[in-house]
Design a protein that fits this description.
Layout (H helix, E strand, L loop, with lengths): L4 H20 L13 E2 L11 E3 L51 H14 L3 E2 L11 H4 L15 H6 L5 E4 L2 H8 L2 H6 L1 E4 L15 E2 L20 E7 L5 H10 L5 E5 L6 H6 L1 E7 L7 H8 L3 E5 L18 E3 L7 H6 L3 H14 L14 H11 L9
Parallel strand pairs: 1-2, 4-5, 5-6, 7-8, 7-9, 9-10, 10-11
Antiparallel strand pairs: 2-3
Length: about 400
């Protein structure tokens, strides 16, 4: 029997309302390895050790960091006020020069502030038994359908690792996730060795992590006129042809402090008294010496091919560092001496501006290494590479 038109309209309206309700109730989970983390549309209870994030209706990952109690979320933490843009630099005739070491400070500051305003982190404890209310998310269980495309975790069903990140600075951290193809191909790797020749490093997806030693404070820098040595480097050869060539060519130069191994004076002193500090590939390429040079106000000289520098999508490294191809080591001194003093002074002042981005605090502060690394994850929030 054919239904009356009014009944058909009523049934269609009910189906439309149901479809809207279902679409509004969808939850996207964003899992982060080391501390398993997920995106959620509501604010659940909050024990500690796993982070939860909130996706807004516009499908962007807006979040704001929170400290949560064991029972319920606390009010959002106080946000950093929006920083004013740096004043434009002018020359003697009043013409505006380039505005420092950032590709686009205004764009970066606005996007960074959006991240600070909308990031929400809900922290949970590690799950060890099935009595936890979150056991269905974190504990593995048998695949009921015996489908190889499904995993043993709910988040693995959804994104095959594309919603995770993990941190590693050495080979052990890279080898373990490399055994899981979905994790290796999809998860974001935060690594201290961001070379294109490094195994398992994917430049379009992974993040170069600044390798920064814990320091109590930002010590005062030696001014440029107090830096009497041209170049400083101290490190083992480590089967590195580049380092061996560097020592053979410049080890006895009177303007260079080049040491195969430890220097004859305190290691930090070389950074403080030199204008340029070399970053030369050894067994691997990492950022320890770059961060040390920036901390002590020494212009980094990067001698390494195909290397992703930390925060390179925000910082214009050409404004406060020198990048030299490995095959040009023989002309190293000529290149450095060709840098005019006014250019060196501008590089030094730009280096002082970016110094705060390479410092870790026990309680993170705006624009330090913690938040700058979080910003790299923010920029990659829409990168999903599903393996099926």
């Amino acid at each position: 029997m054919k239904r009356p038109p009014k009944l058909q309209q009523k049934r269609l309206l009910e189906m439309l309302v149901l479809a809207v309700l279902l679409s509004c109730s969808c939850i996207a989970l964003f899992g982060f390895y080391t501390h398993r983390a997920f995106l959620t549309s509501t604010s659940p209870l909050a024990p500690r050790s796993t982070a939860f994030y909130q996706i807004q209706n516009d499908h962007l990952h807006h979040y704001n960091r929170q400290n949560l109690s064991l029972n319920a979320p606390q009010p959002a933490a106080t946000l950093f006020p929006k920083p004013p843009p740096p004043p434009p630099q002018t020359n003697a005739v009043g013409s505006v020069l380039e505005t420092g070491p950032y590709h686009n400070w205004e764009l970066f500051a606005a996007d960074f502030q959006e991240m600070m305003q909308h990031l929400k982190i809900f922290v949970y404890p590690d799950i060890f038994n099935k009595s936890s209310p979150f056991a269905n998310i974190f504990l593995p269980r048998e695949n009921p359908l015996d489908n190889p495309k499904l995993g043993n975790y709910f988040s693995e069903h959804m994104f095959k690792g594309a919603d995770h990140f993990y941190v590693c600075c050495h080979s052990v951290g890279r080898e373990a996730p490399s055994k899981h193809h979905g994790l290796r191909n999809n998860a974001i790797q935060l690594t201290c060795c961001s070379s294109y020749f490094q195994r398992f490093y994917l430049s379009h997806k992974d993040v170069g992590l600044p390798q920064v030693w814990p320091r109590t404070d930002q010590t005062a820098l030696n001014p440029p006129h107090a830096r009497h040595r041209l170049v400083y480097f101290a490190g083992r050869v480590q089967n590195s042809q580049v380092r061996q060539q560097l020592i053979n060519l410049w080890g006895n130069d009177t303007e260079f402090d080049i040491f195969n191994g430890s220097p004859t004076f305190p290691y930090e002193e070389g950074f403080k008294r030199s204008k340029f500090c070399l970053h030369v590939k050894g067994y691997e390429v990492n950022t320890a010496r770059v961060s040390d040079a920036i901390h002590y106000g020494c212009i980094p000289v990067i001698i390494s091919n195909y290397y992703d520098l930390p925060f390179s999508n925000v910082l214009d490294w050409s404004k406060f560092s020198v990048v030299i191809n490995q095959r040009d080591i023989a002309s190293l001194k000529t290149k450095l001496l060709s840098i005019k003093r006014e250019v060196y002074l501008r590089m030094y002042h730009d280096l002082c501006k970016v110094r705060r981005h390479f410092f870790w605090h026990t309680t993170p502060r705006g624009y330090d290494s913690f938040y700058m690394t979080a910003y790299q994850l923010w920029l990659r929030r829409g990168t999903l590479r599903l393996s099926y």
